[in-house]
User: Fold DH domain-containing protein from Schistosoma curassoni.
Amino acid sequence: VPSGLIGQVDTVFGNIPLIYEFHKQTFEPELAKYTESGDFLPEDVGHCFVVHSDRLAELYVEYCVNNAESTRLIIEHGQSYFQSLQLYFNLVEPLQSYLIKPVQRVTKYQLLLRELRDCCDPAGIGEISEGLEAMLNVPKRANDALHLSMLQNLPEDVPLSSLGDVILQDQFTIWEPKQLIKKSRERRVFLFDHCLILAKEATNQPGEHKSK
Assistant:
């Protein structure tokens, strides 16, 4: 095992074991219960997503956030190592193709719920729409969490937990009109329930954001 991967199993594979156990022990049996009943309705699938929406979002947001670091580790320290394992075990695809599948699963859930919504009686699409909304929100929450994890230099008396939920975060450009030659500066804004934070990328640590 390359030295850069020693002790990094949880980072490389993320919370895949938890996702697997949740689907095996909870989510799949509940979906199967509806399909095995004689009076199955598409709305029942929506109900299942609504009941477990918080847990689904928690698991997949955590996985998506970790996936960036997992990819970095594999590229920097493990490409030849995992390629040799792929050949040894005669795997069809490289490891990264398997590790991206939980991320793709979120999109497949969205597609499934859209198709169910379109074929249902409009009077019964409430829970399907709620389940779809929860799955559509996962990529946004993952992106917000990823950028929050890179935010540095907050005042010691202002912990992130005190700022409330992230309403919006995005990158924007600031122009300096007083300059003869106008200069643009890239900044990232974080809008919380109780606070607005402007940050710039740390020049010595690309990807990290320093609060202003």
Summary: The first strand starts at residue 151 and ends at 152. DSSP finds seven helices and five strands in the chain. Residues 1-149 form a domain with the Dbl Homology Domain; Chain A fold (CATH 1.20.900.10).
